[in-house]
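Hi R.,

Here's the chain you asked about this morning:
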Amino acid sequence: TWADPTCSLVMKETDREAVATAVQRVAGMLQRPDQLDKVEQYRRREARKKASVEARLKAAIQSQLDGVRTGLSQLHNALNDVKDIQQSLADVSKDWRQSINTIESLKDVKDAVVQHSQLAAAVENLKNIFSVPEIVRETQDLIEQGALLQAHRKLMDLECSRDGLMCEQYRMDSGNTRDMTLIHSYFGSTQGLSDELAKQLWMVLQRSLGTVRRDPTLLVNVVRIIEREEKIDRRILDRKKQTGFVPPGRPKNWKEKMFAILDRTVTTRIEGTQADTRESDKMWLVRHLEIIRKYVLDDLIVAKNLMVQCFPPHYEIFKNLLSMYHQALSTRMQDLASEDLEANEIVSLLTWVLNTYTSVEMMGNMELAPEVNVNALEPLLSPSVVSELLDTYMSTLTSNIIGWLRKALETDKKDWSKETEPEADQDGYYQTTLPAIVFQMFEQNLQVAAQISEDLKTKVLLLCLQQMNSFLSRYRDEAQLYKEEHLRNRQHPHCYVQYMIAIINNCQTFKESIVSLKKKYLKNEAEEGVCLSQPSMNGILDTIAKEGCSSLLEEVFLDLEQHLNELMTKKWLVGSNAVDTICVTVEDYFNDFAKIKRPYKKRMTAEAHRRVVVEYLRAVMQKRISFRSPEERKEGAEKMVREAEQLCFLFRKLASGFGEDVDGYCDTIVAVAEVIKLTDPSLLYLEVSTLVSKYPDIRDDHIGALLAMRGDASRDMKQTIIESLEQGPTQANPNYVPLFKEIVVPSLNVAKLLK
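And here is the predicted structure, written out as tokens:
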């Protein structure tokens, strides 16, 4: 190898590179003259480096040579081993070819071995086979004694013997059904024992919530038996993949059946809580739902705290029981919702489903946390069913409210005919129980609706207000009929005035109650806007109160009619006390009217004042008297002034506390008296002009009647005054309340008056 030309060239090239490197290093060391003194030192240092490198090189080469030597030795040994194996294989092949005939001659021995194995297995199982009847009896006794775990152990032994024999027979001759049937028949009691044991297990599971409190060991034994059977099922199914054989009655799937039994038990428990019917107890549904709530809560607390300790964790017993209870409740609520429920029953059901179920009284109870998350629970009733129930409730509630309001009004009407006065409130104002009854009914329904949802509460409030509108219209009609009935016979009803006052006061109570109701049950502006869009009831109530006040005033003026007719007559002029009687009568009535609440009493007082003055002026315009001398005119005018002051004093007294000017109406009588009192006929035009300017609704027939009453105005003067006033209409004061407008002068034209 070293003589190879290529290697020689490589060596020469290496030598040249080494010399060049050495020259370069020496040149680097001897760059200055003073470094020549260190040449010997440099030589020794380089010699040491060279010796070190050569030593490392020799060691490396020696190590590689040792490795090569070892490898060559191992290769040599491997070659020898291969040759030995080759020789051994040749010997085996030779022996195998020579023994083929010998193996075929041992077939009888092979059959004998198989038969021996079977017989050995049979001998081994003979004891168990002969003891089957005894084991069956013992197992039956253990089951009857409640020793379920021991009974199951013996049952497993029986099934193991049966399954082993049948499997062996299947392997030997799977088509031999006679032997398989014989074995199955011999072990026929085994399946009956299994079924009997299963019944006992299911009975324990059906009472598991009670058993876990009294004897948790029994429940644990049941679960252990089920878990054993599950393991046997899995083992047999795995063996089926290899042998294709499955023993009779397998797989038992007792775990699956266990959950089915628990599910049926939960369903039965929920359905069995209904102890009453609507016929036997009106509160049957409330009682039924309360029992369900209590039972479910108690059961789940027991399951969470006790039952989970009796079952393996992978059974997730609490989660499964929670699901079963929820599904059973959902089914029960669906059944209840499909029944023909009454309004209060619908409320009870929806309140329970939407609120109670997820509240701290049930699923939200702290003892169930954190395993139960109420936010993760599905609704017990679908939104469509809830909506249908709400529609039914609103429809029924509408009919009920209409009926309740009608009945309340009928009851109130009966009170109007009583011989005793109505009750008074704490301030002494007459009232009936109608507003309290109506709004107590509204309040109760709103409280019930609020328990279900805010949306239903708003709907019920709107319904109440809508029905209130219709009710007030009927209330107004009944008040009018009440007045008409009284006018046909003013002696009846005996307390007509007092009950009409109560009707008027009820209007104010209704107003206040409506405001209170809205304030209490409308929590935001949006809801307020919805209700404001409904027709306002204030107008209807004001109308009822106004008509009631008019009815009372009509009653007053019916009693005053005789005395009003005496005004401006000869009898009046010579000394009638008609105005005294009028004042006494009005004051007497207003003693009763003091029972009217302030806003209506104030308006009624003002209206009574106006009407008395109008009736007084009407008497002036009736042309009942014509004064024949200045003395009569003076006497009549002064009497009119005195009576005006008398009326003014009366109404000032009646209006005390209202803070209003009550002199304006009576001043009209004084103004008319001034026209009559005037002694200089030449100033009559000026006086009449002043009267017309103050009271612009006065007409020419009024002026004609007034001049006729004076009795001293000539025809030309009357004509001149009337024509002059017709040419210069006056501008009415915007605050002026017309008085003459409704006064009709008897049908006698002005021309006839002038004559």
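One quick note: The chain has 28 helices and no strands.

Cheers,
M.
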